[in-house]
Request: fold
Amino acid sequence: MIRVGVIGYGYWGPSLVRNFAELSGCRVVMTSDLQPERLALVQSRYPRIEVTRDSTELIDSPEIDAVAISTPVSSHYDLALRALRAGKHVLVEKPLTNTSEQALRLIEEAERRKLVLMVDHTFVYTGAVRKILELTESAGLGDLYYYDSVRINLGLFQYDVDVIYDLAVHDFAIMDYILPCKPVAISATGISHVHGGKENIAYITAFFEHALIAHVHVNWLSPVKVRQTLIGGSRRMIVYDDVQPSEKVKVYEKGIDLSSSTESAYQMLVSYRSGDMWAPKLEMTEALHVELSHFIDCIEKSQTPITDGHAGYRVVKVLEAATESVKGRGRLIELAGANARA
Amino acid sequence: MIRVGVIGYGYWGPSLVRNFAELSGCRVVMTSDLQPERLALVQSRYPRIEVTRDSTELIDSPEIDAVAISTPVSSHYDLALRALRAGKHVLVEKPLTNTSEQALRLIEEAERRKLVLMVDHTFVYTGAVRKILELTESAGLGDLYYYDSVRINLGLFQYDVDVIYDLAVHDFAIMDYILPCKPVAISATGISHVHGGKENIAYITAFFEHALIAHVHVNWLSPVKVRQTLIGGSRRMIVYDDVQPSEKVKVYEKGIDLSSSTESAYQMLVSYRSGDMWAPKLEMTEALHVELSHFIDCIEKSQTPITDGHAGYRVVKVLEAATESVKGRGRLIELAGANARA
Amino acid sequence: MIRVGVIGYGYWGPSLVRNFAELSGCRVVMTSDLQPERLALVQSRYPRIEVTRDSTELIDSPEIDAVAISTPVSSHYDLALRALRAGKHVLVEKPLTNTSEQALRLIEEAERRKLVLMVDHTFVYTGAVRKILELTESAGLGDLYYYDSVRINLGLFQYDVDVIYDLAVHDFAIMDYILPCKPVAISATGISHVHGGKENIAYITAFFEHALIAHVHVNWLSPVKVRQTLIGGSRRMIVYDDVQPSEKVKVYEKGIDLSSSTESAYQMLVSYRSGDMWAPKLEMTEALHVELSHFIDCIEKSQTPITDGHAGYRVVKVLEAATESVKGRGRLIELAGANARA
Amino acid sequence: MIRVGVIGYGYWGPSLVRNFAELSGCRVVMTSDLQPERLALVQSRYPRIEVTRDSTELIDSPEIDAVAISTPVSSHYDLALRALRAGKHVLVEKPLTNTSEQALRLIEEAERRKLVLMVDHTFVYTGAVRKILELTESAGLGDLYYYDSVRINLGLFQYDVDVIYDLAVHDFAIMDYILPCKPVAISATGISHVHGGKENIAYITAFFEHALIAHVHVNWLSPVKVRQTLIGGSRRMIVYDDVQPSEKVKVYEKGIDLSSSTESAYQMLVSYRSGDMWAPKLEMTEALHVELSHFIDCIEKSQTPITDGHAGYRVVKVLEAATESVKGRGRLIELAGANARA
Reply:
């Protein structure tokens, strides 16, 4: 029975507590939050969970084996580092840290102490994304040509992070999971409509070694909510539309076939294929349930989580590069180091 | 009665001939095409139109007042220049020319000879785009924040132009018409999946002097057809979805209000507005009919068309910059000259 | 402070308890259910609410002012009657009773004792339906021509009621609320695919005195979920699509204008109007919250609820007629009595 | 080379002429219409086709082998009978005739003279409907449970026919083609909003011998265009949405499994299946092209068309019954004779 402490009971914390509470191999023993009214809410809902305003009390409690952190990004590094040093396994909300340097130090600390360090890349644990991985791995798509995602809505303008850290993190976490290779360079553009504020619209291109390109469009100022990802391969193409209540993943038997013309070296022939469309049934278990169950499993069996510290590091590395490129209005930022390392 | 000659009876030429034929102020007297079977088609449909394989015969015919050119882009400049020198008014399919230099020379030739030079930016003449201009001009949107367009489908790979010249030209033509200012710099990325071929996917960001950003995503390799443009303003936002059979333009009473917090200079307050949505009835006349009628009008009244040579030049200037930026993997290309000039 | 008891903690009971718990003018003091595990759930969630397997204990408790009943339909009448006789105000889940006779007896009992009797016609309290009433009352639609509803999905086959009592009840409750007149006759068809079971598909036409017709299609065996209502008027028409996450109600400036031709008495001229479409912003408060708040208000102020016993009676009268008509394969069932009475 | 005459160049006639003109095995030699301006249109488009206002001239012409009739329904019988008596093969626009008696007489005349009599049930020749037949015949759907169609829009109010003859004819033509059995009784309701006019809204239920039910909703007064058919089977279910530009036919691996409970004879267990969805690629050839090609084939090879006179008769028999039932406000009309006969 893993004893869990949850730091932060704001937007995402309640989902963490509820899902931990429904798992059989663990129980939540303590929750901390800076706001007393949030703690009162915990108490009314879960009379048996202890509450505290002091995260140090939670981190240092000998009654706790694992700590889940769902606080603003800027506090992730300090809290996670202290929890690791206190010998706790740690789950951190996305993105893992503000900087890739911080992510590296957390990885080192966890590895030295043989503790589980996991980042909450929730989408990786959805039935949709796991089905897409299955299709990708089984070579069902053929050679990958492009990955294109639009993640926009009239969203909460945040103060500690820009729209890249808030929304694009999901897309790069998914790509880190399903693509067979890692990006080597980033070019991004964006804009802030709040004077002195963070970017609220961004367009990020990721380049890869092979003829694969990825692009992510994130926007907090859209009148409509769009969550649509296109994945184009040489054999099949996928449309993943997360706002649909059903048939979120559609697989199209569509594409092009390229062949050199015999008549002229300069002429290429492109022929178009168009066949059936197919929407596979998806596993419907709540992603966070699958994820937390995996976290508990990894602790019990001393295993490495799918979304471990390295995954968190690689994603932060891309977010850092994107933010830097936006400042240079599309300036290319190489990522070679990130890949060599990871 | 303006006498018209149409050069090129391939993909777009038949629409030009059909629409000219239905206008009262003009008649098509000759059509040229390099392929005899295309000319046979003209003859079976329009027994009274003369046909020729030789565009020079058409251009030099004293029976012709105006020439419409719908041939591959690479031939636009030569044909248009010869037609202007022969004293004909000229309508050129989009994009006007391959290079902005060529566009400037056509403009000079037309101005010297007081001839009408018009580019076939068809979307400018649709009920949807004219309604959007009306909303923009009446300040119904407030300050413009962004213009975002996705124009993708499983499309014909072309050999003489890339996907930017083929598809993004529409978006920049629309922007040239409805936005109150012109782009000052471009950063674009893209990829070609055909060895040695032209780009078949591109992402283009246009920067403006004020806090406005534009982005265009074009792709010949998408399993689904998308034609969606979002225009975000401080008062209202528009979603223009051209694949819908009805309600193509939706206006949302949505947005944010920004205000400085009195408590802290560092804190900004963002409040969200959400109200009705409204889909105005659109004029349904075929865009090409409106456009050709305008062309004939401009000739008869010696007026400047809405989509004159300068509009064609400004759009080609952006396409050129985008193509150059793609080669530099997002490298920023300044457009100052284009705006100073136009 | 109204003290509430809730009978039945199955599918709908938890929503009742949660919403009563969040209201300020009342508190839930006791909940009953036949299954101990359901009561355990109540206790874990609301430690202060008493639980019992015996509904009589709840009904007879002097600590309770009002009883909410969310049990199978066949038990509604007995439980409600006993509660009224015990001097409690009563809220009953839809449909009010199995038969219209039972509904009449509940109405009489409540009126004699001056108690509030309310039926849980939830949709009446949604922002969408209240907006539609507003449009209907303000004559925004002109003369009403038709009301057409489709309410289908792959749903739970029920054993105590057919698809008419399960799903069509919603549509007739909405019609009872928004239409200015009541149906005078019913013709319905349907089928059961479970041997000896209740109808799982039904088509119900309601006739009115004027040139208004209503139709409801309900189906437990549809591969897709549809919740779409069309309301056609002489001036405007409404499409109410309840599965949309936003813009559930769309108002179309569309219709026909009829005029006698002067040339011939036998010729009618129909002209078609087509204008803007408009999706009004809807009140987003949870319907059950609005409804329970109204129930508490009516108790405190001795007022008649919008969905009182008479509304419940009229709707059951229609359901009865529809079920009878289905058995007669479309045989017309007159409803004159129902309207005379109510 | 079959020589064809086309009577009627109004709404549908131009499509007939265009498609006949593109077929290799036939040619259109004459077209008749009562309005001179329609004939002028024929001449401008097809200089080689003779025109006449007198359908008798066309019918009696020895230069003509087959006659296609696209005139108002009330004239179908007379024109078709005269054409058959003149020894011509005949294609008649849907519905075949006004009354089933007329249909029978045409069938007799054609059979006696060994001429092809075909009715223009166009949807039967679409890729979508042919694919649905394939799925139905291969037992891919299991036992058929229901067929439900909605065919509504803001449509032309017609004077010679009601909405049943205008729109529901399509659905009953499709059912006649794809369902393994024929309806045995009809119950229908409807309304006319034009004083003294024909019904403009109708709801038609068709009963079959087995546990299959069909329903058709047709409406000329809907603000939105809907063309959606659901076909429910015990193994799979189909959604056929004809207004979609692609993926018109979707096959759902969804349904219920019924089994008797061993514990109680009165208890039935229903379990729900939910699997993949699949949209098969459809043949895209224009339906009318396929149909006219079939007509010419049947003439050349003396074969019976898929949509022969008997199909036309069976469909008119249903339309007659529906119209009669509407007048009786849902009164059941038995169809036994129709099936015995056909």
Remarks:
- Confidence is low (pLDDT under 50) at residues 262-267, 338-342 of chain B.
- Chain B touches chain A through 54 residues (CB under 8 Å).
- The first strand of chain B starts at residue 2 and ends at 7.
- Residues 309-327 of chain B form the longest helix (19 residues).
